[in-house]
C-alpha cells in the first residue's frame, strides 16, 4: 500500500479551497498526470495551476523524520547522500539524471576505451534508502526555483522530447535543503558554440562525440567524397587546453594511432587532432610537466594552436586573427561558470556569481539552506578564496556536510527552523591533494603539490600513468563499476577499442 500513501502525500499540498469538486471529472488529474510519468498512457490536458498550488511533498510533522532535499546528483550531492543517515532523515533527491557521472574517466568513454556504464553510478546504489524508505525519493526533474522563506523547492519533470508527456510541475517542502547543482560550460558569449560544439560533461555528450567521430570516419570512406571534405570530416578540433581538453586529445590520438590505423586504413592519413588554447595548456601544472605534455602530445600527432576562437559556424571556426579552421568534430572544454538556475536564484552570491556560503557551507540570511560543489563559493565576508571547480572539493564538501547534518539531526534539530542552538563543530577546510591528467600513449602527469609555488612530488611518464589509473580505479564508487572499468581496460589492451556505431 505504500504507493497509495505516496499518492496521498503528493496530492495533499493542494489547498482545500483550490481542490476541485469531487464530481468534477478532472478531480484526480494532477496526481494522475504526475503518475502518468511512469505510465505509457500520457494524459495530454491538465488544468492550469499557479506555482504555489502545485501538488508535491508537504512539510513534515514534528513526529515524522525530517526531510533533506538534495538538488543535483553530481559529486557533491551523491557524496552527501551517501553519508546521510537514513535513520535520521528522509532523503529526497531532485536531478535530471538518475546517476552520478565519474567525470575523471568520461573522456575515455568517447573513443571506446571504457564503456559508458562503467562511469555512471545509479543513485539507488549510492544511497539505497532512496529506493527503500517510504519517505525517501529520487525525482527525475529539474529544480526551477527555490522559496527559501516557505522552505519549498519548485520542480519540473524531465521528459525525453516532445513525443513523450508534458513536463509536470510539483513542489517539495524541505527541512534542510542542499543545493549541489554544479556548473555550466563557459562559452564566453561566443556565437555558435551552443549550436555546433559538443561539451564533455555528461554521458550523453560522450555518446554524441563517439557517434559523430565514427560517423565521420565512415562518411569519409564513401566513394566520391572530395579530398577537402574528407579532410574536414576527419579534423577533430578541441577548444580548451585544461585537463579535460588535454585528456580528451590524448585519448583521441591513442584511438587514431592504434585503432584507426588498423581498421580505417583508407582514411588514416586524413584524420587529425587540433587543440586550440588561448594561453598555455595545463596552466595549473608545474612548468616541467607542461613542457612534457606539450612534447608528448605533439609526438602523438596533436597539433597545438595558440589562439582565441571568435566565431563558430556549422563546419568551421574562426579565430581572432581571421584564420578559418574547418572541422568535422568540435569539442568545447573551456572551463565552467554559474549555470542559469544558479544565476536566477535570489540567494547571496560569492564573487564570480556562485551561491555564497559561510565557513560551515550554510547560505547566509536564509535558514536551513546549504550549498556545496561547483555551484558554491565562500561569501566575501569570510575572507576565503573561491575553491576550484574540482571533484575533490565537491566530494569533501559533501562528506563534511553529511556529517554535520547527521550531527544536527542527532541533536534533535533536523526539522526546519530548529538548528539555532546547535554546536556545528569545526568549519570546512580544504586541503588540495594535487592534480593528475593523462596525455595518451600510457603517459600521465602527477602533480602532488598543494599549489604551484609549493614543494612536492611532480612527475610524468609511465609510472605516473600507473599511479593515475590506480588512483582512479580506487575512487570509482562501487565494486561493480570498478570491475567494469578494470575489464574494459584489459579488453581494450588485448582486443582494441569497440568501434561499432550503436
Ligand atoms: C570531463 C571532466 C573531467 C573531470 N576530471 C576531473 C578530475 O580528474 N579531477 C577533479 O577533481 N575534477 C574533475 N572534474 C571536475 C568535476 O567533475 C566537478 O568539479 C564535479 O563534478 C563538481 O561536482 P558537483 O556535484 O558540484 O557538480 P556536478 O557533478 O556537475 O553535478 C551537478 C548535478 O546537478 C544536476 N542539475 C543541474 N541542473 C539542475 C536543476 N535545475 N535541478 C536539479 N538538478 C540539476 C546535474 O544533473 C548534476 O547531477 C572533471 C569534470 C569533467 C566534466
TrEMBL record:
Keywords: FAD, Flavoprotein, Membrane, Mitochondrion, Mitochondrion inner membrane, NAD, NADP, Oxidoreductase, Peroxisome, Transit peptide. It is a peripheral membrane protein. It is found in: Mitochondrion inner membrane; Peroxisome. Residues 432-498 form the External alternative NADH-ubiquinone oxidoreductase-like C-terminal domain. The keyword Acetylation does not apply. Residues 67-398 form the FAD/NAD(P)-binding domain. It comes from the Eukaryota. GO terms for molecular function: NADH dehydrogenase (quinone) (non-electrogenic) activity. It catalyses: a ubiquinone + NADH + H(+) = a ubiquinol + NAD(+); a quinone + NADH + H(+) = a quinol + NAD(+). Its cofactor is FAD. InterPro entries: FAD/NAD-bd_sf, FAD/NAD-binding_dom, NDH-2, NDH2-like_C. Its EC number is 1.6.5.9. One of its GO terms (cellular component) is peroxisome. It holds the Pfam family Pyr_redox_2. It is an enzyme of class 1 (oxidoreductase). Belongs to the NADH dehydrogenase family. Alternative NADH-ubiquinone oxidoreductase which catalyzes the oxidation of mitochondrial NADH does not translocate protons across the inner mitochondrial membrane. This is NADH:ubiquinone reductase (non-electrogenic).
Amino acid at each position: 500500500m505504500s504507493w497509495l500513501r505516496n499518492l496521498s502525500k503528493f496530492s495533499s499540498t493542494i489547498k482545500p479551497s483550490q481542490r476541485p469538486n469531487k464530481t468534477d471529472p478532472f478531480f484526480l488529474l494532477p496526481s494522475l498526470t504526475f503518475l502518468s510519468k511512469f505510465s505509457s498512457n500520457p494524459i495530454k490536458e491538465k488544468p492550469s495551476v499557479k506555482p504555489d498550488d502545485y501538488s508535491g511533498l508537504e512539510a513534515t510533522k514534528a513526529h515524522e523524520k525530517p526531510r533533506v532535499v538534495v538538488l543535483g546528483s553530481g559529486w557533491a550531492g551523491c557524496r552527501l547522500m551517501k553519508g546521510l543517515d537514513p535513520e535520521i532523515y528522509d532523503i529526497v533527491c531532485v536531478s535530471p539524471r538518475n546517476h552520478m557521472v565519474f567525470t575523471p574517466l568520461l573522456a575515455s568513454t568517447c573513443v571506446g576505451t571504457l564503456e559508458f556504464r562503467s562511469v555512471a553510478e545509479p543513485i539507488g546504489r549510492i544511497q539505497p534508502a532512496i529506493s527503500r524508505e517510504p519517505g525517501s525519493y529520487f525525482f527525475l526533474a529539474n529544480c526551477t526555483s527555490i522559496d527559501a522563506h516557505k522552505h519549498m523547492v519548485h520542480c519540473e519533470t524531465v521528459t525525453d522530447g516532445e513525443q513523450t508527456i508534458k513536463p509536470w510541475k510539483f513542489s517539495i517542502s524541505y527541512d534542510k535543503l542542499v543545493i549541489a547543482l554544479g556548473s555550466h560550460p563557459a562559452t564566453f558569449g561566443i556565437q555558435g558554440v551552443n549550436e555546433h560544439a559538443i561539451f564533455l560533461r555528461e554521458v550523453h555528450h560522450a555518446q554524441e562525440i563517439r557517434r559523430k567521430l565514427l560517423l565521420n570516419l565512415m562518411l569519409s570512406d564513401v566513394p566520391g567524397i572530395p579530398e577537402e571534405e574528407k579532410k574536414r570530416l576527419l579534423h577533430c578540433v578541441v577548444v580548451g587546453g585544461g585537463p579535460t581538453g588535454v585528456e580528451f586529445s590524448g585519448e583521441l590520438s591513442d584511438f587514431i594511432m592504434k585503432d584507426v590505423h588498423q581498421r580505417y586504413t583508407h582514411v588514416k592519413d586524413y584524420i587529425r587532432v587540433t587543440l586550440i588554447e588561448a594561453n598555455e595548456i595545463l596552466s595549473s601544472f608545474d612548468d616541467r610537466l607542461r613542457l612534457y605534455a606539450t612534447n608528448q602530445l605533439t609526438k602523438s600527432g596533436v597539433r597545438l594552436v595558440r589562439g582565441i576562437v571568435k566565431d563558430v559556424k556549422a563546419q568551421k571556426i574562426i579565430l581572432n586573427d581571421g584564420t578559418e579552421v574547418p572541422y568535422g568534430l568540435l569539442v568545447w572544454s573551456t572551463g565552467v561558470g554559474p549555470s542559469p538556475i544558479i544565476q536566477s536564484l535570489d540567494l547571496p552570491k560569492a564573487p564570480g556569481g556562485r551561491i555564497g556560503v559561510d565557513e560551515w557551507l550554510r547560505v547566509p540570511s536564509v535558514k536551513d539552506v546549504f550549498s556545496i560543489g561547483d555551484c558554491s563559493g565562500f561569501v566575501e565576508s569570510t575572507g576565503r578564496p573561491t575553491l576550484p571547480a574540482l571533484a575533490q572539493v565537491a566530494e569533501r564538501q559533501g562528506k563534511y556536510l553529511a556529517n554535520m547534518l547527521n550531527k544536527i539531526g542527532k541533536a534533535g534539530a533536523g526539522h526546519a527552523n530548529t538548528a539555532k542552538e546547535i554546536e556545528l563543530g569545526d568549519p570546512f577546510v580544504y586541503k588540495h591533494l594535487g592534480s593528475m591528467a593523462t596525455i595518451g600513449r600510457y603517459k600521465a602527469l602527477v602533480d602532488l603539490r598543494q599549489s604551484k609555488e609549493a614543494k612536492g612530488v611532480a612527475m610524468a611518464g609511465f609510472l605516473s600513468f600507473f599511479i593515475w589509473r590506480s588512483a582512479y580505479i580506487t575512487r570509482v564508487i562501487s565494486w561493480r563499476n570498478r570491475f567494469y572499468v578494470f575489464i574494459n581496460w584489459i579488453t581494450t589492451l588485448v582486443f582494441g577499442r569497440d568501434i561499432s556505431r550503436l
